[in-house]
Amino acid sequence: MKNVILVLLFCLALTPSGEAKASEVDLSISGGQIYTTAVAYRKLYNIEFLEGLRFGWVTRLTHANKSGAAYETAPADIRRRKSDWLSGITASEIPNNIDTLKVENTQATFAAIGYALEYQASQRWILGHSLDVFGFTFGPESDALYTPNPNRGSSTSPAVVKAKPSNTNLFLFGDNDIGSLNSEFYVTYSLNDNYSLRGGLAYTFVEYKTDRKLDFDNDRFRIQATGLLIALNYRF
Questions:
Q1: pLDDT at position 153, please?
Q2: Would you place residue 85 in the very low, low, confident or very high pLDDT band (cuts 50, 70, 90)?
Q3: How far apart are CA 64 and CA 220, in angstroms?
Q4: C-alpha angle with apex 61: 90 to 98, nearest 5 degrees?
Q5: Percentage of the chain surpassing pLDDT 70?
Q6: C-beta separation of 81 from 46 below 8 A
Q7: 172-208 tens-digit pLDDT
Q8: Distances in Å between the alpha carbon of 198 and those of 121, 130, 229?
């Protein structure tokens, strides 16, 4: 609960008081370790005391897909030397605790509400960032191959299990995150008053949950994928 309150306070602290600058919708695709397609709506506001900066809210629907993607142990208290929330971000990893789940067919669709931050660098060029904060995911079940870390000497043998996307998504910073989240770092070029092109990087978390507990009583596995992003944007 404390982590949820921290996220809400973070968002409230950035809430702008200026008048709305623009509403935008766009379609984006990205490719890399995971392929994603996303449709997003953004409402941006001027930040009165910081010229050129805009902040607002984004609602986004993302679909992620990939065959044979390798997921790793997700919970921060297993993969890191975690004693509190901060150490879930900064503490060193424990490599022997990190197991692998190879999902045969990743098909995860997640809807989220988050924030967007942009800087108007010139009349045509904009630098921006957006991030999912909370939402939910749905998708079909898939076969997956669980492989414990061989350096740990686990008594568990590799096994085929069932897995499906974790339902709840919540941004809590670093490995404290829960579920599937999408974020973007981008440059926008305005073609005219209404249309623009965006390019940059998409950083996507996708989390799957197995149908039974495995080593460390864990059933959560995540892939952290970076891919090139391209999008067509319509402003109104």
A1: 81
A2: confident
A3: 17
A4: 35
A5: 91
A6: no
A7: 998 999 999 999 999 999 999 999 999 999 999 999 9
A8: 14, 12, 8
110 residue type, one letter: F
Whole-angstrom distance, CA of residue 76 vs CA of residue 177: 8
**How many Å separate Cα 108 from the centre of its chain?**
12
Domain ranges of the chain: 2-235
Is there a contact between 226 and 202 (Cβ–Cβ < 8 Å)?
Answer: yes
Amino acid 135 reads G
Q: What is the pLDDT confidence band of residue 73, given thresholds at 50, 70 and 90? A: very high
Q: Write the CATH number of the domain with boundaries 2-235.
A: 2.40.160.20
pLDDT tens-digit readout, 121-172:
999 999 999 999 999 999 999 999 999 999 988 778 899 999 999 999 999 9
In 3D space, the residue among 61, 59, 57, 21 whose CA is nearest the CA of residue 38 turns out to be 61
Do 88 and 77 form a contact (C-beta atoms < 8 A)? yes
Structure tokens at 106: 């990743």
Burial 88-127 (b: 16+ CB within 10 A, else e): beebeeeeebbbbbbbeebbbbbebebbbbbebeeeeebe
pLDDT beyond 60 at 18: no
